[in-house]
Amino acid sequence: MTREYTGENMVVATGIEKFYPNGCHALKAVSATVKRGEVVAIIGPSGSGKSTFLRTLNQLEVISEGQIIVDGIDMYDQSTDINQLRQNVGMVFQSFNLFPHKTALQNVMLAPLKVSKRPAKEVEAMAKELIDRVGLSDRMNNYPSHLSGGQQQRVAIARALAMQPDLMLFDEPTSALDPEMVGEVLDVIKGLAAEGMTMIIVTHEMGFAKEVADRVLFMEDGALLVDDSPAAVFDSPEHPRLQQFLAKVL
């Protein structure tokens, strides 16, 4: 696999079905396309399949049927090295998953050193730059236990960026944070959007989705019901279920 694909579409998911052994039909014929440089927000009630769909895009969840092409590579082709593909797809979770025995700087440096085998001096310089980019240059030698939740999540974002991904996936990145810490994380994501990073964000922050996203996907009961502009979704929603959802959360 190479990273030389420069087609317009970063993600093309077609007819995605996901069944669990217990009979749960988690994803129902979900099809969506994300263009290079686009920011797509996924909204919907809890249990609607948002995070499941997001996790299929780097094969943390294996689909039952359908096709997913990421950066020109068919994820389920037998010749695809999924670990190599994942290096090009950054992921930020609800929980920060930082190594507690490593400083912020060491957490950001780890994957480029161990996975990409890049020179230590080069990685350290890049990691310091990324930590500064998320506003934590004065905290780079702190351990996670000495960082707030918002600061830990910003380190997690810097860690994902350290692999120089072409696509970033965010799975409700602010849901585990105290309300006053949400803004600092959303500001970092807004900065990435302004720089042209391709991002797919599962979020409950409706104002953020309206402000930052180029498109908004609304999911319900495993199905993708609406795929439209933020203005159409939030200002003039036509789908009855979307209207009901927004009436409760706005």
Automatic annotation (TrEMBL):
Subcellular location: Cell inner membrane
Membrane topology of this protein: Peripheral membrane protein
Coiled coil: none
Domain of life: Bacteria
Listed SMART domains: AAA
N-terminal signal peptide: none
Gene3D superfamilies: P-loop containing nucleotide triphosphate hydrolases (3.40.50.300)
Primary site of residence: membrane
Pfam families documented for this protein: ABC_tran
One GO location term (cellular component): plasma membrane
Ranges for domain ABC transporter: 11-246
GO molecular function terms noted in the UniProt entry: ABC-type amino acid transporter activity; ATP binding; ATP hydrolysis activity
Entries under InterPro entries matching the protein: AAA+_ATPase (IPR003593), ABC_ATPase_HisP-typ (IPR030679), ABC_transporter-like_ATP-bd (IPR003439), ABC_transporter-like_CS (IPR017871), MetN_ABC_transporter-like (IPR050086), P-loop_NTPase (IPR027417)
PROSITE patterns per the UniProt record, alphabetical: ABC_TRANSPORTER_1, ABC_TRANSPORTER_2
UniProtKB keywords: Amino-acid transport, ATP-binding, Nucleotide-binding, Transport
Protein family according to the UniProt entry: Belongs to the ABC transporter superfamily.
The protein's name: Glutamine transport ATP-binding protein GlnQ
Gene name as annotated: glnQ_1
